[in-house]
Amino acid sequence: MTDTAQTVTVFADVPPSVLFAALARPAVHAAADGSGMLRGVSDGSPEAITAAGQTFGMEMTDEQGRPYSVDNHVTAFEPGTRIAWLPAGRGKPPVGVEWSWTFTPEGDGTLIAVTCDWSRVTNEAYLARFTLPRVSVEKVRATVDAVIAATRD
Questions:
Q1: 0.70 exceeded by pTM
Q2: What value does the CA radius of gyration of the chain take, rounded to a whole number of Å?
Q3: Given 30, 37, 58, 64, which is the most exposed site by the fewest CB atoms within 10 A?
Q4: Contact, 86 vs 70, CB < 8 A?
């Protein structure tokens, strides 16, 4: 971990294309959430992400159990290789936290790297309110494990 990013790396005996296809479906995000914060996909979200520039919504619960909604702005969509997004409060611009999943072929499987990068966050009120990253390494790992399991269902 650096001062502005946290990366969790996991090997999976699943092809990159299969992992990418799973993560391109917002419903998998909610079903595989290891943080306990995702409640479901927002109405009107696409069934599958197909390009950078798209937005998909999620219904969330904060650390105190209060519900809220986010719009995830897709910043990278490289099939089989990388998908990334910037969350934002519903109807607001992103604060600068980017979630990125990178899939690198390795032997008979894939090296998955999940990075939470908050280097672009400049909103002082946000930085004062939240300790970053908001999701621990253990919870990110639980999410990765659940995404891997979802590819086997």
A1: yes
A2: 15
A3: 64
A4: no
Task: Write the pLDDT tens digit of every residue in 49-86.
Answer: 999 999 999 999 988 899 999 999 999 999 999 999 99
Provide long-range contacts, Cβ within 8 A and 24+ apart, for 123-129.
123/95, 123/96, 126/95
Which tens digits make up the pLDDT trace of 43-59? 999 999 999 999 999 99
**Spatial separation of the C-alpha atoms in residues 35 and 133, rounded to whole Å:** 12
- Tell me if 125 sits within 8 A of 105, measured CB to CB: no
Nearest to 153 by CA among 6, 27, 5: 27
Q: Is 144 left (phi over 0), alpha (psi -120 to 50) or beta?
A: alpha
Q: Where are the beta strands (DSSP E) in the chain?
A: 5-12, 38-41, 55-61, 67-78, 82-89, 98-106, 109-117
Helix (H, G, I), strand (E, B) or coil at 26: helix
